[in-house]
Design brief:
0% strand, 70 residues, 3 helices, mainly alpha
Length: 70
């Protein structure tokens, strides 16, 4: 049995953004990044659902919402 991989948030964001761009299929992205297509769909959904939080008023800028470095 293999150990589960823990991907860092920057990697997840990069993969999800590539999926949102739509330049490659999810299957192609899964092969390119070495993750399961279902995982890409989950990360994409999480990114889209949480995107509005970046623009909420009255919130102090936190490291959590800083732009990922690629």
């Amino acid at each position: 049995m293999s150990k589960r991989k823990n991907h860092n948030p920057a990697f997840k964001a990069r993969v999800a953004l590539e999926a949102i761009k739509g330049e490659q299929t999810v299957t192609e992205l899964a092969s390119r990044f070495g993750v399961h297509p279902t995982q890409i769909h989950q990360w994409k959904r999480s990114l889209l659902e949480g995107a509005a939080e970046v623009f909420e008023r009255g919130q102090k800028t936190s490291k959590r919402f800083s732009a990922p470095t690629f």
